[in-house]
Predict the structure of Purple acid phosphatase.
Amino acid sequence: MELKVALLTLVLCAAAAAATADYVRPPPRAMLSFPWSKKDSSEPEQVHISLAGEKHMRISWVTSSKHSPSIVEYGTSSRNYSFSSQGESTSYSYFLYSSGKIHHTVIGPLEHNTLYYYRCGGEGPEFQLKTSPSKFPITFAVAGDLGQTGWTKSTLGHIDQCKYDVHMLPGDLSYADYIQHRWDTWGKLVQPLASARPWMVTQGNHEKEYIPLLEDSFKSYNSRWKMPYEESGSSSNLFYSFEVAGVHVIMLGSYTDYDKSSDQYSWLKADLSKVDRVRTPWLLVLFHIPWYNSNTAHQCEGDDMKAAMEPLLHAAGVDLVLSGHVHAYERSRRVYNGKSDPCGAVHITIGDGGNREGLAKEYMEPQPEWSMFREASFGHGELMIVNSTHAFWSWHRNDDDQAVRSDQALLTSLSGTGCLAEKGHELRKMLLEP
C-alpha cells in the first residue's frame, strides 16, 4: 500500500516539478545571532545523539563544569529512569579558546521503534529520543552544508516537519571556520532535532580547521561529533559505517587519504566484504565532494577520489551516493565512469542546507546526459525506503519559508536486479587485491 501511495505521489507531482524551472531565488540571509545567557555550569547543552552499533545510541553533550559526570539516565516513561550508563569525556584547546567538558555516553541495548526519555549528567532538562525501526519502512532526512543562517533555521524547521528516523549530513556542519564559539552556537541551534533523532555526519572542508605547526586537522569535529567508527572496525572518526533497518550506510572522508594504499581504502574493502545484501538489501554511501557535478562550482575536485574508489563501489553495487560541497541540488541517473549505467549508483548533490556562503547558481551547458534534475536553491532531501526493492526520494526546496517538493524519484535497489550477480566476481577480485 505504501509503495502504491509513493508511486501515485510521484505521478501527481511530476507536473508540479516541471513547472518550477522559472523559480526566482530569494536573496541570502544573514548569520543568526545568539544572545549570551548564563546557565548553571553543569547543565547539559548541545545535546545530540548518534547510532552506536546494534540497539545502542551514543548521547553527546557539553557542560561548562569540568566536574560534571558523564552519566545518562534513561527509561521508557517520563522521569522514571530504569537504566543508567557511564561514559567518557574529553576537551580541547584551540588558540585562546578552551572547550567545555564534552561527554560521550553509549546507552543500550534499546528496543527498536520505541520512545525513550533521558537525562544527561544527573540533572537538567529531560530529553526524548525515538529509536529506529528494525525493518522497513524507514525514512532518512538529508541536508549538507548547513551552517547557521536564516536559511539554516528554515531548513531545520522543514526537517522537523518530516517524520524521519535518521538524519544524514554529508559534511560542512557549523561553518565555525576557526572561530570555535561557533561550534557552541551551532550545537545549540541543532539540539532540538539532534537530541531527538540520530544525526550521522561526515566531515567537510569547513571541519578541517588546520593550521600548520599550530593546530591539527579536525580537532573540533572529532572532539564534538564522535561517530561509530570503532564499532565498524575503522581506525578513524573520518570514515565509518552503520546499519539500520535493512540499510548499510558507508560514510567516507573526502579530506583524508583515499588511494589504494590508504587506511581508508583498506577499511572500505573490509567493510564491503561484510555487507550481506539479504540482510541489508540497500547500500548507501555519503561523502562531501561530489563525483558527478554539472555546476560550475568545485569542478573536478572529486576526480582523484572518484578514480580511486568508484570502481570498488560500482563492483559492490552501491545504490545511492549522497554528497555536499556544491551549494545547490542535483540528481543523476544511475551512472558510472562518466556515463549512464543501469548498474551504477544514483548520485545526489545536496549541499544546500543554508550556509553563509550562498548558492552556487551557475550550471554548465549543455546539461550532461547523466544529469536528471538540478536547481540552485536551499532545501533538504527525504529518502523513504519502503521495502527491500523500492524507495522514494524527494527534495524539498525552501520557498519563502515553505517546504516545496521540487524533485522526486522512485528508486529501485540493485539487490533486486541481475547487476549484483554480474559483478560478484569483479568485487571478489578487487577485495583480494593487496
